[in-house]
Design goal:
Blueprint lengths: L2 E6 L3 H17 L2 E7 L11 H22 L10 E6 L6 H9 L3 E5 L12 H10 L4 E4 L8 E7 L7 H12 L2 E10 L8 H15 L8 E5 L3 H11 L4 E6 L13 H8 L4 E5 L1
Parallel strand pairs: 1-2, 1-4, 2-3, 4-5, 6-7, 6-9, 7-8, 9-10
Antiparallel strand pairs: 5-10
Helix pairs in contact: 4-8
C-alpha cells in the first residue's frame, strides 16, 4: 500500500479519515495525499478573468491556511504527507486523481444521511462509492484500532467478481486476522438452492485458484441485504465490512439499486468497497 488518498473538507469526520489513513500509512509505509475540493461559487464562472483570478487566489490562501492547522497533528509525524487542492466540487474527480496517481486506497470520513454539515456526507459519499475504481474505505468515527480481528466481505460469488474478490482478500487479509466471504440468499427471483450456491462458490475458487478460501465462506438466508449484513456483523463481532460493487449499477443482481450506498451511510463500522 504505497499511496493513500484522503478527500477532506476539514470537518471532524475528515479528521477521523486522516487519522485512520495515518495509522495505515505507518503500518504499510505509505504516502498520504490529502485532497481538498475547492468550492468556488457558481457566480465565478460568469465573472471576468480578473475576478476569477482574485476569488481563486483568495480561496487558495484560505485553504492553505486551513491545511496548515489541519495537518499539524502528532499522529502524522514520520509520514510523508502531500496536500492537494483541486478546483472543482465534483467528487467523482477523486477517482480520476486516484487513478492518475495509482493510489492503492481512498479513505473518506462520512456522517451518513442524518446530518448535513460539510461536504463529504450522504449523497456525496455515495458518488465516490459509485465512481471509485480504487478501493475505498469509509469511516464514521475516530479510529480505535486498525488491527482488525475479523472483516466480512459481502459478495454474490459471480464470475465477474473474481478479480475484485481477490484484490479485497489480499488487502483485507493484510489488515485483519480473519476475513470471511459472505453470501446472502434472498426469497425472491434470485433465490438459489444450496447446490446452486455451492456450485458458484466452487467455480469461483477454481477461477481464483484459492482453495484456502473454503474455510472462510459463510452462507446465510434473509429478507433484506442490508439488514442481513449488519446483523451478521453484529452477531459475529465484525470489525469492518467489505463490499464488492459494480458502481452505478449497484452490486450485481444480488446487491441491486442503492444497497452499497445505503450500507455505507447506515453502518457504524468502517466499510471497504471494491469495484468489479
Amino acid at each position: 500500500m504505497k499511496k493513500i488518498i484522503i478527500p477532506v473538507d476539514f470537518s471532524e469526520h475528515s479528521e477521523y479519515a486522516l487519522e485512520t489513513a495515518a495509522a495505515l500509512a505507518k503500518k504499510h509505509n505509505s504516502e498520504l495525499i490529502v485532497m481538498h475540493m475547492l468550492e468556488l461559487s457558481e457566480s465565478i464562472f460568469s465573472s471576468s478573468s480578473s475576478e476569477k483570478n482574485e476569488e481563486t487566489a483568495f480561496m487558495l490562501m484560505v485553504t492553505n491556511k486551513k491545511f496548515e492547522s489541519f495537518l499539524d497533528k502528532p499522529y502524522l509525524e514520520g509520514i510523508t504527507v502531500t496536500p492537494m487542492i483541486k478546483h472543482h466540487k465534483v467528487l467523482k474527480e477523486v477517482d480520476e486523481v486516484a487513478s492518475e496517481l495509482r493510489a492503492d486506497l481512498v479513505v473518506m470520513g462520512s456522517r451518513g444521511h442524518n446530518d448535513y454539515e460539510g461536504v463529504l456526507l450522504g449523497s456525496n459519499t455515495e458518488k465516490v462509492v459509485r465512481h471509485s475504481k480504487t478501493p475505498l474505505l469509509v469511516v464514521k468515527s475516530k479510529p480505535e484500532n486498525i488491527d482488525f480481528e475479523h472483516i466480512v466481505i459481502a459478495t454474490d460469488f459471480s464470475p465477474n467478481s473474481a478479480s475484485a474478490i481477490t484484490n479485497a482478500m489480499e488487502m483485507l487479509s493484510s489488515l485483519s486476522k480473519k476475513v470471511t466471504l459472505l453470501h446472502i440468499n434472498l426469497p425472491n427471483a434470485n433465490f438459489l438452492s444450496t447446490d446452486e450456491i455451492e456450485e458458484k462458490v466452487s467455480n469461483l475458487i477454481k477461477m481464483t485458484n484459492h482453495v484456502d478460501w473454503k474455510d472462510n465462506i459463510a452462507l446465510i438466508s434473509d429478507y433484506n441485504i442490508e439488514e442481513a449484513i449488519l446483523g451478521y456483523a453484529d452477531k459475529h463481532n465484525i470489525d469492518a465490512i467489505g463490499m464488492i460493487t459494480e458502481g452505478r449499477t449497484g452490486i450485481s443482481h444480488l446487491f441491486g439499486g442503492s444497497i452499497s450506498e445505503d450500507l455505507v451511510n447506515h453502518s457504524k463500522l468502517p466499510v471497504f468497497t471494491f469495484k468489479k
